[in-house]
Design goal:
about 240 residues, globular, mainly alpha, 8 helices
């Protein structure tokens, strides 16, 4: 079943590549190259995480710890570069990030089928919210914080994520209702985490947390949705028997 889920992820990725082909046709050559570079790096990251979950979940847990540590560092990095201004924002952000990171760490130690399922839903939401938003998005959700996020993108990504959750629910053997709850929560928390990271950057008047991952706005910018989406699954495990 895990192999089937992986093949579904790759199939969705290829559909996404087709979508980006139409999107990039309208861009100048320089912007198109950046977009393709970002897509390729994202593909590599997805495969690294998928393989770490499938072959040895301990590797994924180690990656999760590294992601958390690097996230704290990038929060501090912007705070330091600002001359230690916005102290209240920094300390509140650290507390919130610590809460999400703790839940994400718990998530990283759960059954590999559940981790893989959740990661698949998250990757699908991330990809299709961007594709549907860039193809058809007009109305911005939070233009002052993250101008690229649109209502259409969020709705489109959420719908595809939920439908995919129903399609792949055999991996964790849950009812359709439970698959919808889990998938919708992953999408919502991923959006919240990504928006929170964007808010922190905007307040510090920077575009990227760092250049560690080219074209992805920094390490935290790439994994903020994974941290928050995994947090939802860990939180849900406190109230739902199927998790």
């Amino acid at each position: 079943m895990i192999l089937i889920v992986y093949l579904v992820i790759i199939s969705y990725f290829l559909i996404g590549v087709l979508g980006f082909f139409f999107i990039n046709r309208k861009r100048d050559a320089s912007e198109a190259r950046k977009s393709w570079k970002k897509t390729f790096i994202y593909f590599v990251i997805i495969n690294i995480l998928c393989l770490s979950i499938v072959f040895n979940p301990v590797i994924f847990r180690c990656l999760a710890v590294f992601i958390i540590i690097r996230g704290f560092y990038e929060l501090f990095k912007l705070f330091r570069e600002s001359g230690y201004q916005l102290k209240n924002l920094f300390f509140i952000s650290v507390l919130i990030f610590a809460a999400f990171s703790s839940a994400f760490f718990i998530f990283s130690g759960m059954k590999k089928e559940l981790i893989f399922y959740s990661f698949a839903i998250l990757s699908i939401f991330d990809s299709f919210s961007q594709i549907t938003g860039q193809l058809w998005g007009r109305k911005k959700i939070i233009p002052t914080i993250s101008p690229n996020k649109t209502v259409t993108g969020f709705i489109g990504g959420t719908i595809v994520a939920i439908l995919s959750g129903l399609l792949l629910k055999g991996l964790i053997v849950v009812s359709p209702a439970d698959a919808i709850i889990l998938s919708a929560g992953v999408a919502l928390f991923a959006f919240i985490g990504d928006s929170a990271a964007s808010f922190y950057k905007r307040k510090h008047n920077v575009k990227d947390f760092s250049n560690l991952i080219p074209e992805h706005g920094g390490f935290l910018d790439r994994f903020d949705s994974l941290i928050s989406g995994g947090s939802w699954v860990a939180l849900l495990s406190l109230f739902a028997n199927f998790v």
